[in-house]
Write a structure and sequence with these properties.
5-stranded antiparallel β-sheet, 8 helices, about 35% helix, globular
C-alpha cells in the first residue's frame, strides 16, 4: 500500500476489470416492486453513491450520466456534511438510463463491502446490514456468481494497493460491523474470498464455515408467500416471468 490517493488511472483499471454481473438473476427486478418501481440500489431515496474526487473525474470523462447529489432532507444533508473532504455524493439518471460500463465502484460492489479482520486480513465479502430488509440479493447469497466474487476481491485488492486510506476506512467499517452484529446477537454472514459461506463471531472475530441454511432470507424475501404479500401491500407488480428461486 502507498500513502497516496487512488488516481484517475487507478480507477480506470479497476473499472476495466470489475464488470461481472452479481447474479444470473436481475436482482433489481425483485426489489423494485417494493420500492415504487425502482431498484433499491438505484435511487438516492435509499442509497446515495459516494465517490472519491478522482473517481468523479473519471466518470466526468466517460459519461454525462452522473451529477452532483442535491440533498433533499435533513438526513441527506447530514450525510453530505459528514463526507471526507476527498469524497463527493453523486446521483445518476436512474436504473432505466444505466450505462453499466460507467457505474461507480460502489454500484458495482453493492450490497457488499470488503470485510477485514482485526489483524487487517481481507477475507471476504460482507454486506451493508442496513439494507437487510430491502435488498433481495442479501437474502439470496447462494445466487452470487463466482466471477463476481473473484472480480470484487481483485478490485478491492487493487484499490487498497493504491490507496491506504481506503484500506483503513474499510478496516474501521469492519470493526463497526462486529460491534453492530454483537448488539444484534448474531454472526456476520460472509462470502469467502475463495467462495463458500462463513460466519464471523462478532465478539471474538473468529471466522467459521457456515452452511447456507444458517443465513436465512430476511424481511419480505423469507418465502414466496411473504414476498407476494409484500408486493401486493406496496401496490407493485410481480417481476415478468415470476418464478421463486429454489
Amino acid at each position: 500500500m502507498t500513502d497516496r490517493d487512488a488516481t484517475v488511472e487507478d480507477f480506470r483499471r479497476i473499472y476495466d476489470r470489475f464488470t461481472a454481473v452479481i447474479s444470473r438473476y436481475n436482482c433489481g427486478n425483485w426489489c423494485a416492486p417494493l420500492n415504487n418501481g425502482e431498484p433499491v440500489c438505484c435511487t438516492t431515496k435509499q442509497a446515495i453513491p459516494i465517490v472519491q474526487k478522482n473517481e468523479w473525474k473519471l466518470l466526468q470523462e466517460r459519461t454525462d450520466m452522473w451529477s452532483r447529489f442535491k440533498p433533499y432532507d435533513k438526513t441527506s444533508k447530514q450525510i453530505v456534511k459528514d463526507l471526507h473532504k476527498d469524497c463527493l455524493a453523486i446521483e445518476c439518471r436512474g436504473a432505466r438510463h444505466c450505462e453499466r460500463d460507467n457505474r461507480t465502484m460502489a454500484c458495482r460492489a453493492f450490497p457488499f463491502f470488503p470485510y477485514l479482520t482485526r489483524s487487517g486480513d481481507f477475507v471476504g465479502l460482507a454486506y451493508y446490514w442496513t439494507f437487510e430488509d430491502r435488498c433481495w440479493m442479501i437474502s439470496h447469497l447462494e445466487l452470487v456468481e463466482r466471477d463476481f466474487v473473484q472480480e470484487f476481491v481483485a478490485a478491492y485488492e487493487s484499490l487498497f494497493e493504491s490507496d491506504a486510506g481506503e484500506y483503513e476506512a474499510y478496516k474501521t467499517y469492519s470493526a463497526t460491523a462486529r460491534r453492530t452484529f454483537s448488539r444484534f446477537k448474531r454472526p456476520i454472514p460472509l462470502i469467502g474470498r475463495e467462495g463458500g459461506f462463513y460466519k464471523i463471531m462478532p465478539k471474538t472475530g473468529e471466522m467459521r464455515p457456515a452452511p447456507r441454511s444458517e443465513v436465512a432470507p430476511l424481511g419480505p424475501y423469507r418465502t414466496e408467500r411473504t414476498y407476494r404479500a409484500a408486493v401486493k401491500d406496496a401496490g407493485g407488480t410481480l417481476p415478468d416471468g415470476f418464478a421463486w428461486p429454489g
